[in-house]
Amino acid sequence: MTSGTASVPRAAAPAVACEGVTVRFVTDRRTVTAIEDVSFAVGQGGFLSLLGPSGCGKSTLLRVVADLVEPSAGSARVRGASPAQARRDRSIGFVFQDSALLAWRTALQNVALPLEVGGRRALPAGAPTPRELLKLVGLEGWENSFPHELSGGMRQRVSLARALLGAPSILLMDEPFGALDEFTRDRLNAELRRIWRETGTTILFVTHSVYEAAFLGQQVMVLAANPGRVREIVPVDLPEDRGLAIRETEPFARLVTRLRNLLGPV
């Protein structure tokens, strides 16, 4: 006889979850608390902007998730597993402030670089190829160009394509557009939202820009400094399918005002 009780599937684990994460750096002279008691969760396919002043631990938090920094207290989980396991599984892509391209390799060769290091020689089944990723980021036709032949924005696109190689489920972005001019930054913001929607990748995006944080994210986690801590996680009540013109609307202006107020004196 079969049981009359239906099995209930467990809810999927958050893509990224931190609980009470604290990071302290110890030197010969003193101990510095970079972040203290930080807790948050991002669902699968979510987009979280991390906003705050310099010294609030935004980059440190990304490095905890990426298994580059060990928490002094608390825990981080990536898709229900440890950051170390996620790193070994290559579930995480990382885009840094600098594109960090190798000058002697073409755009295509730079994107393919992860296939030559770390023991992986082949892409997972169904994952886009380096050439397909360059097309995804708008660089079709530039595959054989060297970094010195590309603009700053184009180099960051190559870096983004490289981070997406292997179809990681989590993409960590540490202020990748901060050094670009305003026009290029706006264009890449719009392109990033398109790529996010097309790939379903979960994104954690660090920025100092209130406008960038509000435009990109589904939520904005505002951090305070000294030590870095969560001030508030603000939902972004804007249409998911949005273009740059939304920044001229009243709802966007209200959101920016709220974020600016949260960034006021501690």
Structure at a glance:
The chain is of the alpha/beta class. It has helices at residues 58-65, 83-88, 107-112, 130-136, 152-164, 182-199, 210-216, 250-262; strands spanning 16-26, 31-42, 47-51, 73-78, 92-95, 170-174, 202-207, 219-224, 229-235. Helices cover 29% and strands 23% of the residues.
Topology of this protein?
Layout: E1 16-26, E2 31-42, E3 47-51, H1 58-65, E4 73-78, H2 83-88, E5 92-95, H3 107-112, H4 130-136, H5 152-164, E6 170-174, H6 182-199, E7 202-207, H7 210-216, E8 219-224, E9 229-235, H8 250-262
Parallel strand pairs: 3-7, 3-8, 5-6, 6-7
Antiparallel strand pairs: 1-2, 1-4, 8-9
Largest sheet: 6 strands, mixed
- What CATH calls the topology of the largest domain is Rossmann fold
Radius of gyration of CA atoms, rounded to a whole number: 19 Å
Q: Which strand order do you get reading across the main beta sheet?
A: 5-6-7-3-8-9
Count of runs of 4 or more consecutive helical residues: 8
Give the averaged pLDDT, no decimals: 91
Look at the structure and give the CATH class of the largest domain: Alpha Beta
Poorly predicted segments: 1-10
- Reading the helices and strands in chain order gives EEEHEHEHHHEHEHEEH
How large is the share of residues in beta strands? Answer: 15-25%
CATH level-4 homologous superfamily of the largest domain: P-loop containing nucleotide triphosphate hydrolases
Distance between the termini: 64 Å
- Given helix and strand content, the structural type is alpha/beta
Please identify the oligomeric state.
single chain
Question: How many beta-strand runs?
Answer: 9
- General shape: globular
Number of domains: 2
